[in-house]
Design goal:
Elements (H helix, E strand, L loop, with lengths): L2 E6 L6 H12 L3 E7 L1 H6 L8 H9 L6 E5 L5 H7 L4 E5 L14 E5 L7 H9 L4
Parallel strand pairs: 1-2, 1-4, 2-3, 4-5
Bound molecules: [cytidine-5'-phosphate] glycerylphosphoric acid ester (C2G).
[cytidine-5'-phosphate] glycerylphosphoric acid ester binds next to strand 1, helix 1 and strand 4.
């Protein structure tokens, strides 16, 4: 059974997130998603609309997702890969090259980011009364 892992904030869950998870699952048999905690998002300087408990619940409800774990630090990826017996690390290509160090532990693949959608753009559209 090929085990895949990916990481992200997944705030204001949208089609770009869904396509990432769909493609990540299609590359294996079991998909673990590490969802950034509120504390880690502060480290990432990422302001979220939804708290971790809600973002994790939404991701857990996605049919492509088999397990959700918290992402609390930048440094946890290698130990996660080992602890969870991960074969493949996947993330959007906005991170191209950033996680190549994980090739020591598992396969690494960057998936094309879905254009023209992001949590930031959604917030802006709502603020501007679009849609
Ligand atoms: N994504 C995508 N297309 C979009 C928006 C996001 O494919 N239009 C992907 C991102 O590339 C990422 C995942 O969806 O793989 C989650 O995106 P974010 O919630 O923005 O996650 P990010 O803040 O990039 O956190 O340690 C890694 C970080 O936690 C990643």
């Amino acid at each position: 059974m090929k085990r895949v892992i990916t990481y992200g904030t997944f705030d204001l869950f949208h089609y770009g997130h869904l396509r990432l998870l769909e493609r990540a699952k299609a590359m294996g048999d079991y998909l673990i998603v590490a969802v950034s905690t509120d504390e880690f998002n502060r480290i990432k300087n990422k302001h979220c609309v939804y708290p971790y408990i809600e973002r994790a619940a939404i991701v857990r409800a996605i049919k492509y997702v088999d397990e959700v774990i918290p992402e609390e630090t930048w440094e946890q990826k290698a130990s996660d890969v080992i602890k969870h017996g991960v074969d493949l690390f996947v993330i959007g290509d906005d991170w191209q090259g950033e996680f190549d160090f994980l090739k020591e532990y598992c396969q690494v693949h960057y998936l094309e980011r879905t254009p023209n959608i992001s949590s930031t753009e959604i917030k802006g559209d709502i603020r501007d009364g679009k849609g």
